[in-house]
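Researcher: We're reviewing a set of sequences before deciding which ones to prioritize for further study. For each one, I'd like a predicted 3D structure that I can look through quickly. This is RING-type E3 ubiquitin transferase. If possible, include the structure in token form so it fits the rest of the review sheet.
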Amino acid sequence: MASLILIGSGILAILGAAALAAVAYWHDRRLAAIQQTPTWPVGDLLDRVRAGLLSIGAAVEVTGIAETQTSLRAPYSDTPCVAFRYMVHEEREQAAGRAWDGKQKKTETAFGDDYTQSVPEFQVRDPSGAITIVTAGASFDLRETVARYEEMTGLGGSEREIWRQEWALPAGSPVFVHGYLRQLGANPQIGADPRQRGPFLISFQPERSLHQHLGRRSLLFYVLGGIAAGAGVVAIVIGLLV
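Model: Here's the predicted structure for RING-type E3 ubiquitin transferase, in token form for your review sheet.
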């Protein structure tokens, strides 16, 4: 029986390692796509589009200030923004009578929410011009604006623990966009890859910081995957020898 448990645990560990490696590879692909795409001043990018040097679906990058006429309000910080994400996790503990041995019984419940919202489109502006970003399908890398823990005790010994987090891309703040040309002509737009292959990323971080961030995350997942794979192999070998 013990050998079967070890072998089963080893197989699960190897499957987990494969999942971690897949996540690391996904980060590697995003990083490679960003590194291989030049970042243009907006005015230069618009000139290239008008000259017919770029076509729909071409990978492009711009950096500048995020501007929008219809900003959102982040729910906890009330920050005017083009995108936000909030996450809340709440646990409740409430008295529920006494057990046969006289000890207080308690019931526990937990629930949470994780929600992201963005404006349909906004503009990236630099000293050379502005271009429209259509946000549908984007992955957002947002700046943390709230991290708050609350603990409350009510009547009857009930307790509540709430963890709130919020991230946002404030309107008027610097932004980096890696995306794809979705419209040409007088009003070019950047959005998701029409072939649904390449990453569409909107980040509060400068490009260099983003490179380092993605590289660290990829390395972390590879290391964790390697540890899980090694532990899985050891468990299977021991299970076969027991």
